[in-house]
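Protein record
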Amino acid sequence: MRYISTRGGMAPLEFSDTILMGLAPDGGLALPESYPKVGRTQLDAWRSLSYAELAFEIISLFATDIPAADLEDMLDRTYTAEVYGSADITPVKRLHDGLVILELSNGPTLAFKDMAMQFLGNLFEYVLAKKGEQLNILGATSGDTGSAAEYAMRGKQNINVFMLSPDGLMSPFQRAQMYSLQDANIHNIAIKGMFDDCQDIVKAVQNDHAFKAQHKIGTVNSINWARIVAQVVYYFKGYFNATASNDETVSFCVPSGNFGNVCAGHIARQMGLPIGRLIVATNENDVLDEFFKSGQYTPRGTANTWVTSSPSMDISKASNFERFIFDLVGRDGGKVKALWAEVEAGRGFDLAANLDAVREQFGFVSGKSTHADRLATIRAVDAEDGVVVDTHTADGIKVAREVRLPGETIVCLETALPAKFADTIREALNRDAPRPDGFDGLEALPQRVTVFDADAAQVQRYIEQALS
């Protein structure tokens, strides 16, 4: 299995090389030359596997340069009951109307990002030891990627983490999870702006090839291919958990901001998992909803990005969207390069002529919700099913119920536990969100963070000083 860039300008690489590089040299994102195909025989054999066993079967199709015994060991150490709270790893629960919620938030930071990031921590350490190299991770977070990355990388050999987040715009719980870490290899940087400003800085540094090479800069954002591969696994496991046999078809509804989570679902569908539709649920920052309804993709810039009660989705420029567009336009790297030149110029692009393929060939539909919708959904799910969901999962449930077809089984991906968004849960239910053991007093811990303007040069100077 070899990897190419969505913009067509990278010589094919092996898996281990893609995970250390972040953006491709041409500014694009890594994707396999072709997706492996999974048939009925494999699905039948995989249905009864444990999560770690299933992860091995799927990831080994993509990570062909890692010896099987080494990969198996990494996955056995990653997906354990001790880390995720139960041997099921990703159990499902059914609501009264048949909607299925896939629990992805049982890891150490209570968000779905742990599903991939815990693996990435072990993978990075393994690859760096093999290559005798160091990696300095530069990432951006709108809420959950940062804490998941930091908890996965803290204390790891040969790894430093520099994590950018929008100053003051995450929930108090999310900020405390990140900023309270005192590990010497963890560096938190708050940027005066929105998540898109943080993401733009990461891309600017990634595209400074001399700086990137000198300081061994990589990323754990979902532009990192290994994260997407790890997320593909829970679509298969979610399908098996939500169905009685491989004759069934299900749809997945995915709360979406940066498009990484649903991109993994797209890849699972291309591999042959029986997915009917992929339902993209956005909040008021509805750039993706606009595209899937009209074919027009117009990132709005930070001045026109709403601050909402589902902050991890307060994104108007979805990095991983480029991977889907690459497939949509027939894997034409030159075409993608031209389209993203329009995005980077602030104009966006129009692919209305491709909407039939978006819906029929690739199965995408979308919807959006508002703060009032989130409150109403949280109240309804609590009253009808005795389940408290977080604000992002509420976005997904609202959209899933809105677009559901007769007889359609929809699996809604849980993205975080409600404790991370206590203020909104209190507003909706007039009581505190349930908080797992071990998180009491988190917000009162001492916090360590450096605040900068939205300026890539300042961030680069900080990295240089930290590494000197």
